[in-house]
Amino acid sequence: MNAPQPPKRRRIAGEVKPGDPSVTPVAPSGPKPKLHKPKLSKRPNPEPVAPTTSDLPAAPPRSDAIRVSRPKPSVGFVALLVLAVASLGFGAYGVWSGVDEKRSNSIVEARANATDAAASAIETIYTYQYNNLDEHTRKSQATMTPKLAKSVGPTTRALKQLAPLRKTRVKAVVRYAAAKECGDSCSPHKATVLVFFDLARANADSEKPTVETPRLDVFMVEREGKWLVDNIDAL
């Protein structure tokens, strides 16, 4: 038994039968319409807003510093401190003054001793007689340093040869002697002494002596507590 067929629908004019290959779709003619994008209004840049203290987090509470009270020095303590400092200052000044005064006294005493020794040495060295030259040489060398005694050796030998021939006799007398200024180079172990003396000379040809007045710079040095002549310069 055949199933009943549905009734056929009536075709509308211009309707294309589906699947009909004879009919091709026709594209619409003319240019495609342009689509315009909608214009968006520009949004102004927001101005920066400075943060306020109300926007910052609150700082943690700071504990108060512990203050320790320091006792003020008493007037008595300050006075004792000033007195101690002053005592140290006066003590140092006293020591320095004592050392300087001791050195000054030592130099003054040394210059005086050198002057006396120089005057005595000049009289010994320049006083002699033709008949006692060996004793004169011994005493003269005792007033000199070994260096000076060695340097005057040729003069001593010549004197021993000539003085007996003419029977020469010489007498020296110091009229003035003083230590010369030394400034910063002063030392208790050396000094230069200016000596003025009269030198009377006689011999067999003339009984009347002739007198000279030489001036000398006598360089004195202290050796083992004794002042000796180290050099002599005629002025």
Helix content: 25-40%
Look at the structure and give the CATH class of the domain at 89-234: Alpha Beta
CATH topology of the domain at 89-234: Nuclear Transport Factor 2, Chain: A
Main beta sheet: strand number and arrangement? 6 strands, antiparallel
Order of helices and strands: HEHHHEEEEE
Low-confidence stretches: none
Strand content: 15-25%
Mean pLDDT: 78
Task: Tell me, briefly, the overall form.
Answer: rod-shaped
Count of DSSP helices?
Answer: 4
CATH architecture of the domain at 89-234: Roll
Helix-strand makeup class: alpha+beta
Distance between the termini: 184 Å
Q: Can you say what the CATH homologous superfamily of the domain at 89-234 is?
A: VirB8 protein
Radius of gyration: 66 Å
Number of strands: 6
Walk me through what this model shows.
- By secondary structure, the protein is of the alpha+beta class.
- The chain has a domain at 89-234: Nuclear Transport Factor 2, Chain: A.
- It has helices spanning 75-126, 133-142, 146-151, 153-166; strands at 128-129, 169-179, 190-203, 206-212, 215-223, 226-234.
- A hairpin with a 2-residue loop joins strand 5 and strand 6.
- The model has no long low-confidence stretch (mean pLDDT 78).
